[in-house]
Design a protein that fits this description.
The chain is mainly α. The protein has a single domain (about 15-294), classed as MetI-like (MetI-like fold, Orthogonal Bundle), CATH 1.10.3720. Helix content is about 70%, strand content about 0%. It has twelve helices and no strands. The protein is globular, with a radius of gyration of 23 Å. The two termini are about 40 Å apart.
Length: about 290
Amino acid sequence: MRYSPAYGIARLFSPIMRMGKKYGAEWWILVIGALIILAIVFMAVFAESIAPFSPYDQDTGPQLAPPSGKHLMGTDNLQRDIWSRMVHGSRTILRVAVLAAVISSMIGIPLGLISGFSGGIFDRVLSLIMDSVYSFPGLILAIAFAAMLGPGVINITVAVAVIYIPTFFRLVRGQTLQIKEELYVEAAKAIGSSGPIILGKYIFPNVLATAVVVFTLNVADAIMIEAALTYLGLGLPPIIVDWGMDLSMGKKFLPSGQWWMITFPGIMISILALGFTMLGEGLAEILNPRLLER
Protein backbone atom coordinates (compact mmCIF):
# COMPACT_ATOMS: atom_id res chain seq x y z
CA MET A 1 0.00 0.00 0.00
CA ARG A 2 1.38 3.40 -0.99
CA TYR A 3 1.10 6.32 1.36
CA SER A 4 0.74 9.91 0.18
CA PRO A 5 2.96 12.71 1.57
CA ALA A 6 -0.11 14.22 3.23
CA TYR A 7 -0.73 10.96 5.07
CA GLY A 8 2.88 10.86 6.26
CA ILE A 9 2.71 14.45 7.50
CA ALA A 10 -0.57 13.72 9.30
CA ARG A 11 0.99 10.72 11.06
CA LEU A 12 4.01 12.80 12.01
CA PHE A 13 1.93 15.54 13.64
CA SER A 14 -0.79 13.34 15.12
CA PRO A 15 1.08 12.80 18.46
CA ILE A 16 1.54 16.55 18.78
CA MET A 17 -2.16 17.14 18.16
CA ARG A 18 -3.11 14.45 20.69
CA MET A 19 -0.94 16.08 23.33
CA GLY A 20 -2.55 19.41 22.48
CA LYS A 21 -6.01 17.97 23.09
CA LYS A 22 -4.87 16.41 26.36
CA TYR A 23 -3.12 19.41 27.91
CA GLY A 24 -4.71 22.31 26.07
CA ALA A 25 -3.08 25.75 25.89
CA GLU A 26 -0.18 24.70 28.13
CA TRP A 27 1.04 22.26 25.50
CA TRP A 28 0.99 24.85 22.73
CA ILE A 29 2.89 27.32 24.91
CA LEU A 30 5.56 24.63 25.36
CA VAL A 31 5.63 23.82 21.63
CA ILE A 32 5.99 27.45 20.59
CA GLY A 33 8.79 27.98 23.10
CA ALA A 34 10.56 24.84 21.92
CA LEU A 35 10.27 25.91 18.27
CA ILE A 36 11.78 29.31 19.05
CA ILE A 37 14.70 27.68 20.85
CA LEU A 38 15.23 25.09 18.10
CA ALA A 39 15.24 27.81 15.44
CA ILE A 40 17.94 29.81 17.23
CA VAL A 41 19.94 26.67 18.02
CA PHE A 42 19.76 25.74 14.34
CA MET A 43 20.96 29.23 13.48
CA ALA A 44 23.89 28.88 15.89
CA VAL A 45 24.92 25.44 14.66
CA PHE A 46 24.82 26.35 10.98
CA ALA A 47 25.97 29.95 11.34
CA GLU A 48 28.60 29.70 8.58
CA SER A 49 25.99 28.53 6.09
CA ILE A 50 23.25 30.96 7.12
CA ALA A 51 25.25 34.17 7.55
CA PRO A 52 26.11 35.83 4.20
CA PHE A 53 29.19 37.56 5.64
CA SER A 54 31.76 37.08 8.34
CA PRO A 55 30.73 38.88 11.54
CA TYR A 56 34.12 40.60 11.52
CA ASP A 57 34.07 41.68 7.86
CA GLN A 58 34.29 45.48 7.73
CA ASP A 59 33.68 45.75 4.00
CA THR A 60 30.22 44.26 3.51
CA GLY A 61 28.57 47.42 2.19
CA PRO A 62 27.91 51.09 2.95
CA GLN A 63 28.38 52.37 6.47
CA LEU A 64 25.20 52.53 8.57
CA ALA A 65 23.05 51.23 5.70
CA PRO A 66 19.40 50.60 6.63
CA PRO A 67 17.80 47.15 6.23
CA SER A 68 17.61 46.11 2.58
CA GLY A 69 17.59 43.08 0.33
CA LYS A 70 21.37 42.68 0.58
CA HIS A 71 21.57 43.51 4.29
CA LEU A 72 18.44 42.19 6.00
CA MET A 73 19.17 44.07 9.22
CA GLY A 74 21.37 46.80 7.81
CA THR A 75 25.02 47.51 8.58
CA ASP A 76 26.73 49.11 11.55
CA ASN A 77 29.21 51.96 11.84
CA LEU A 78 32.07 49.62 10.89
CA GLN A 79 30.28 48.41 7.73
CA ARG A 80 29.62 44.98 9.26
CA ASP A 81 26.46 43.08 8.35
CA ILE A 82 24.16 43.07 11.37
CA TRP A 83 22.27 39.91 10.34
CA SER A 84 25.55 38.00 10.16
CA ARG A 85 26.46 39.25 13.62
CA MET A 86 23.06 38.18 14.96
CA VAL A 87 23.55 34.68 13.54
CA HIS A 88 27.03 34.23 14.96
CA GLY A 89 26.19 36.03 18.21
CA SER A 90 23.56 33.39 18.97
CA ARG A 91 26.40 30.99 19.72
CA THR A 92 27.84 33.22 22.41
CA ILE A 93 24.65 33.97 24.30
CA LEU A 94 23.44 30.36 24.16
CA ARG A 95 26.81 29.07 25.34
CA VAL A 96 26.98 31.44 28.30
CA ALA A 97 23.34 31.14 29.40
CA VAL A 98 23.00 27.36 29.11
CA LEU A 99 26.43 26.64 30.61
CA ALA A 100 25.72 28.99 33.52
CA ALA A 101 22.46 27.16 34.25
CA VAL A 102 24.22 23.79 33.98
CA ILE A 103 26.97 24.84 36.42
CA SER A 104 24.50 26.27 38.93
CA SER A 105 22.30 23.14 38.76
CA MET A 106 25.27 20.80 39.17
CA ILE A 107 26.21 22.62 42.37
CA GLY A 108 22.82 23.65 43.75
CA ILE A 109 20.93 20.36 43.26
CA PRO A 110 23.44 18.06 45.05
CA LEU A 111 23.86 20.57 47.87
CA GLY A 112 20.10 20.84 48.26
CA LEU A 113 19.70 17.07 48.34
CA ILE A 114 22.46 16.54 50.88
CA SER A 115 21.43 19.47 53.06
CA GLY A 116 17.75 18.57 53.18
CA PHE A 117 18.41 14.88 53.78
CA SER A 118 21.15 15.20 56.39
CA GLY A 119 19.78 18.14 58.41
CA GLY A 120 21.61 19.24 61.53
CA ILE A 121 24.27 21.93 61.75
CA PHE A 122 25.38 21.37 58.15
CA ASP A 123 21.89 22.11 56.89
CA ARG A 124 21.53 25.25 59.04
CA VAL A 125 24.89 26.73 58.04
CA LEU A 126 24.46 25.98 54.34
CA SER A 127 20.90 27.33 54.34
CA LEU A 128 22.12 30.54 55.98
CA ILE A 129 24.81 30.98 53.33
CA MET A 130 22.42 30.31 50.46
CA ASP A 131 19.75 32.60 51.91
CA SER A 132 22.35 35.36 52.23
CA VAL A 133 23.33 35.01 48.58
CA TYR A 134 19.68 34.75 47.51
CA SER A 135 18.81 37.99 49.30
CA PHE A 136 20.98 40.03 46.90
CA PRO A 137 19.37 41.21 43.64
CA GLY A 138 20.61 38.90 40.89
CA LEU A 139 21.87 41.59 38.54
CA ILE A 140 23.74 43.45 41.30
CA LEU A 141 25.43 40.23 42.41
CA ALA A 142 26.34 39.34 38.82
CA ILE A 143 27.81 42.83 38.30
CA ALA A 144 29.93 42.41 41.43
CA PHE A 145 31.30 39.04 40.33
CA ALA A 146 31.82 40.18 36.73
CA ALA A 147 33.75 43.25 37.91
CA MET A 148 35.87 41.06 40.18
CA LEU A 149 36.59 38.32 37.61
CA GLY A 150 37.02 40.57 34.58
CA PRO A 151 35.77 40.13 31.01
CA GLY A 152 35.77 36.77 29.24
CA VAL A 153 33.38 33.97 28.34
CA ILE A 154 34.39 31.74 31.26
CA ASN A 155 34.38 34.60 33.76
CA ILE A 156 30.94 35.89 32.80
CA THR A 157 29.58 32.33 32.80
CA VAL A 158 30.79 31.85 36.37
CA ALA A 159 29.44 35.27 37.38
CA VAL A 160 25.99 34.40 36.03
CA ALA A 161 26.05 30.84 37.41
CA VAL A 162 26.69 31.96 40.99
CA ILE A 163 23.38 33.80 41.28
CA TYR A 164 21.31 30.70 40.42
CA ILE A 165 22.92 28.22 42.81
CA PRO A 166 20.69 29.32 45.74
CA THR A 167 17.60 28.98 43.54
CA PHE A 168 18.30 25.30 42.86
CA PHE A 169 19.41 24.74 46.44
CA ARG A 170 16.28 26.19 48.04
CA LEU A 171 13.96 24.37 45.66
CA VAL A 172 15.60 20.95 46.03
CA ARG A 173 16.14 21.27 49.79
CA GLY A 174 12.49 22.14 50.36
CA GLN A 175 11.26 19.18 48.34
CA THR A 176 13.80 16.86 49.95
CA LEU A 177 12.55 17.80 53.41
CA GLN A 178 9.05 16.74 52.35
CA ILE A 179 9.94 13.62 50.42
CA LYS A 180 12.22 12.14 53.08
CA GLU A 181 9.19 11.86 55.39
CA GLU A 182 7.27 9.72 52.90
CA LEU A 183 6.56 6.08 53.76
CA TYR A 184 8.55 4.65 50.87
CA VAL A 185 11.65 6.53 52.04
CA GLU A 186 11.12 5.30 55.59
CA ALA A 187 10.76 1.77 54.20
CA ALA A 188 14.02 2.13 52.30
CA LYS A 189 15.74 3.18 55.52
CA ALA A 190 14.18 0.21 57.35
CA ILE A 191 15.62 -2.31 54.91
CA GLY A 192 19.08 -0.81 55.34
CA SER A 193 19.46 1.33 52.21
CA SER A 194 22.32 3.78 52.49
CA GLY A 195 21.94 7.54 52.26
CA PRO A 196 23.36 7.87 48.72
CA ILE A 197 21.04 5.11 47.45
CA ILE A 198 17.99 6.76 49.02
CA LEU A 199 18.95 10.14 47.55
CA GLY A 200 19.69 8.77 44.11
CA LYS A 201 16.88 6.22 43.79
CA TYR A 202 13.97 7.65 45.78
CA ILE A 203 14.41 11.40 46.29
CA PHE A 204 16.27 12.76 43.27
CA PRO A 205 13.79 11.39 40.65
CA ASN A 206 10.97 13.16 42.48
CA VAL A 207 12.67 16.57 42.40
CA LEU A 208 14.02 16.25 38.87
CA ALA A 209 10.86 17.43 37.09
CA THR A 210 10.70 20.66 39.07
CA ALA A 211 14.44 21.19 38.66
CA VAL A 212 14.06 20.95 34.87
CA VAL A 213 11.40 23.66 34.93
CA VAL A 214 13.60 25.92 37.05
CA PHE A 215 16.52 25.19 34.72
CA THR A 216 14.68 26.50 31.66
CA LEU A 217 13.48 29.60 33.49
CA ASN A 218 17.00 30.25 34.77
CA VAL A 219 18.35 30.03 31.22
CA ALA A 220 15.83 32.68 30.18
CA ASP A 221 16.94 34.91 33.03
CA ALA A 222 20.62 34.21 32.32
CA ILE A 223 20.14 35.43 28.75
CA MET A 224 18.97 38.80 30.05
CA ILE A 225 21.72 38.98 32.70
CA GLU A 226 24.46 38.15 30.19
CA ALA A 227 23.18 40.78 27.77
CA ALA A 228 22.92 43.34 30.57
CA LEU A 229 26.49 42.70 31.77
CA THR A 230 27.90 43.02 28.27
CA TYR A 231 25.78 46.11 27.65
CA LEU A 232 27.32 47.68 30.77
CA GLY A 233 30.82 46.79 29.60
CA LEU A 234 31.39 44.15 32.29
CA GLY A 235 30.81 41.00 30.26
CA LEU A 236 32.65 40.05 27.11
CA PRO A 237 35.52 41.76 25.30
CA PRO A 238 34.60 43.62 22.07
CA ILE A 239 36.38 41.02 19.92
CA ILE A 240 33.68 38.42 20.75
CA VAL A 241 30.46 38.64 18.73
CA ASP A 242 27.59 39.04 21.16
CA TRP A 243 24.08 40.48 21.07
CA GLY A 244 24.64 42.48 24.24
CA MET A 245 27.74 44.08 22.74
CA ASP A 246 25.85 45.06 19.58
CA LEU A 247 23.05 46.45 21.74
CA SER A 248 25.56 48.63 23.59
CA MET A 249 27.12 49.88 20.36
CA GLY A 250 23.73 50.60 18.78
CA LYS A 251 22.55 52.95 21.53
CA LYS A 252 25.10 55.57 20.42
CA PHE A 253 23.49 55.88 17.01
CA LEU A 254 19.82 55.81 18.00
CA PRO A 255 19.52 59.61 18.46
CA SER A 256 20.78 60.15 14.90
CA GLY A 257 18.13 57.83 13.44
CA GLN A 258 20.03 54.55 12.97
CA TRP A 259 17.40 52.52 14.84
CA TRP A 260 18.30 49.13 13.38
CA MET A 261 21.61 48.85 15.24
CA ILE A 262 19.88 48.62 18.62
CA THR A 263 16.48 47.26 17.57
CA PHE A 264 17.49 43.91 16.11
CA PRO A 265 19.84 42.81 18.94
CA GLY A 266 17.11 43.75 21.41
CA ILE A 267 14.51 41.75 19.48
CA MET A 268 16.77 38.69 19.29
CA ILE A 269 17.51 38.79 23.03
CA SER A 270 13.81 39.14 23.83
CA ILE A 271 12.76 36.33 21.49
CA LEU A 272 15.32 33.86 22.86
CA ALA A 273 14.44 34.69 26.48
CA LEU A 274 10.74 34.38 25.60
CA GLY A 275 11.34 30.94 24.08
CA PHE A 276 12.92 29.55 27.24
CA THR A 277 10.28 31.24 29.41
CA MET A 278 7.44 29.71 27.40
CA LEU A 279 9.14 26.31 27.51
CA GLY A 280 9.52 26.54 31.28
CA GLU A 281 5.97 27.76 31.86
CA GLY A 282 4.57 25.04 29.62
CA LEU A 283 6.54 22.35 31.42
CA ALA A 284 5.49 23.73 34.80
CA GLU A 285 1.82 23.42 33.87
CA ILE A 286 2.08 20.03 32.18
CA LEU A 287 4.07 18.51 35.04
CA ASN A 288 1.55 19.84 37.55
CA PRO A 289 -0.36 16.82 38.90
CA ARG A 290 -3.52 18.90 39.33
CA LEU A 291 -3.67 19.39 35.56
CA LEU A 292 -4.07 15.66 35.01
CA GLU A 293 -7.16 15.66 37.24
CA ARG A 294 -9.15 17.86 34.84
